[in-house]
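just leaving the lab so this will be short. below you get a single protein, a line of residues and a line of whole numbers that encode the local backbone shape. id like you to explain what the token line says about the fold, in plain words if possible. thanks a lot i owe you, the record is right below:

…
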Amino acid sequence: MDSHLASSFSVYPNPVKDVLSISNSINAEINAVIVTDINGRTVKQFNSNVSQINISDLNAGVYFVNINSNEGSTTKKIVKQ
């Protein structure tokens, strides 16, 4: 994983209640956002250039947000309240 790419993307607020915002400082085009649970199961998938994802229907816990962009991919750990 490219550490430059990882630091370019930020997800907030974290912990999150309903809507998670995704921003990136390199103006990369996001191709897909995949949310997986702690066991690696995909629980949400968004296939477009998204800047916000609604995860209000997920149970509280730890999730991983995999961001695939035209610059590469990175994974962020989030806590759902």
The CA atoms of residues 63 and 78 lie 5 Å apart. Strands lie at 9-12, 19-24, 30-37, 42-46, 52-54, 61-69, 72-80.
